[in-house]
Amino acid sequence: MDNTVYENPLITRYASREMSENFSDLKRFRLWRKLWIALAESEMELGLNITRAQIEDMKRHADDIDFEAAAKYEHELRHDVMAHVHAFGDQAASAAPIIHLGATSCFVDCNSELIIMYDALNIIKEKLVNVMDKLCAFALKYKDLPTLGFTHLQPAQLTTVGKRATLWLQDLSMDYNNLENLFASFKLRGVKGTTGTQASFMELFDGDESKVKELEKKVVEKLGFEKVYGVTGQTYPRKFDYNVLCVLSQIAQSAYKFSNDIRLLQNMKEIEEPFGKSQVGSSAMAYKRNPMRCERMGSLARFVISLPVNSAITAGTQWFERTLDDSANRRIVNAQAFLALDGILNIYMNVSENLVVYDKVIAKHIAAELPFMATENIMMECVKAGGNRQDLHERIRVLSMKAGENVKVNGGENNLIELIRADEMFAPVKDRLGEILDAKKFVGRAPSQVTEFVANEIDPILEANRPLLGKSGEVNV
Predict the structure, then answer these.
(1) 3-state secondary structure (DSSP) of residue 188
(2) Which has the least CB within 10 A, 116, 244, 283, 353?
(3) Residue among 88, 86, 316, 39 at smallest CA distance from 188
(4) How far apart are CA 68 and CA 190, in angstroms?
(5) What are the distances in angstroms from CA 141 to CA 150, 160, 333?
């Protein structure tokens, strides 16, 4: 690392080596050479004057890129594609006359960018399903553990810890489906020529449209793909970048929601993210256990969530067949969106498989609120025993105000149950209050909802991706 210049923290701190390598110059320019080889080989097979020896010469140098020579050429030519055409031609000298034959720069630039994003999406998919797998195990483990539900960040009806986790899971399952839709609609730019008309290839093949169509089919198949855009300008549609970044943004939104929930729960001391044995929470306050991982997730998520609007502007300002004002922008935005989300999912995996649940604290918080929530049940049981519903309602209201005053004004505990137990109007149920106040009776169908949701919506996803599971997340710093 050169400490005298700015280093991108997405590379040095957050993203995995795998994702960083996916967007490396080495991968990009090797893909360019793979594309040039596929083009030349297909042109040879369709009758152009290209020899097998030239193809083999290109293949021998497919991976050993001379970056220094390419840099010198680019400094002179101010054109990155032509710089690499010349650098490749210097190494595969016999093939130099036919490298990039009939193609425009976007033949290598666009197709390679699409392949890189395709591979990056697969990295994201692997990490996404691993997060889902870990949250699924957590949801099932805690499906029966009652906890306070919150609306407006105020105590509401009870739910369970596992049921709350299914909300995080459901967000991710929606993201997974959107990701699969991207894969299903994925296309390469193909072999389209300068403005997308394939005019240069029509010239090479003496106007034979069937050979031009076959050329594109052959090249795409040699790259391992099937679909191409039916029409393009010079580039593939920049709306595809927007579609990709929207899906990445949606995954980031889901992670953001999870990270914020855990941060709130950690403040309540109910659930905590993992905390290293030697980890320091604060430089001043040594006792602190700050939710550093989830805070980092949220920080990176805000960045990813902000990016689709950038791609939307790029897509909307492509004049006619293309302009070049997208190039510098996309070099930054596309790669960094993936690198940042990769960092988010690394942390998400790490946190979701190491969550710490403090069930006694959860029970304490329930005990402080459940008496208020149980008053209707208590009242109904008294009515069954012959009481007057209206009289009981008024008495409970008075006692609830008294208990609320004890909590808010006096700083005491919620003593509503003690007040009810001591009141003669509730004598028929005072020996059954413990039974009535069983928290598990207040969670509705939450446990069943967890098992049904997992079986119906999550298990099929996990089963379809079984070979990808078993991955753990690492937090670099």
Answers:
(1) strand
(2) 283
(3) 39
(4) 29
(5) 21, 11, 39
Q: DSSP for 116-177, please give it.
A: HHHHHHHHHHHHHHHHHHHHHHHHHHTTT-EEEEEETTEEEEEEEHHHHHHHHHHHHHHHHH
Q: Is 152 a catalytic residue?
A: yes
Going from the C-alpha of 189 to that of each of 36, 80, 111, 324, 407, the distances in angstroms are: 14, 19, 6, 17, 67
Residues 31 and 115: their CA atoms lie apart, in Å, by 8
Find the catalytic residue in 152, 210, 278, 283.
Answer: 152
- What distance in Å separates the CA atoms of residue 35 and residue 112, rounded to the nearest whole number? 8
CA distances from 422 to 416, 425, 435 (A): 10, 9, 17
pTM summary value: 0.92
List C-alpha distances in Å: 215 to 7, 39, 110, 199: 42, 8, 17, 13
Question: Distance between CA 393 and CA 382 in Å, rounded?
Answer: 10
How confident is the chain (477 residues) per 10-residue block, as mean pLDDT? Answer: 88 95 97 98 98 98 96 95 97 97 96 98 98 98 97 93 98 98 97 96 97 98 97 96 98 98 97 72 54 96 97 94 91 97 97 96 92 84 90 90 90 88 88 88 96 98 97 84
Rounded to a whole number of angstroms, the CA Rg of the chain reads 31
Rounded Cα distance between 458 and 227, Å, is 29
Catalytic annotation present for 352: no
Q: Of these residues, 24, 84, 254, 282, which one is catalytic?
A: 282
Structural tokens at position 252: 């980031």
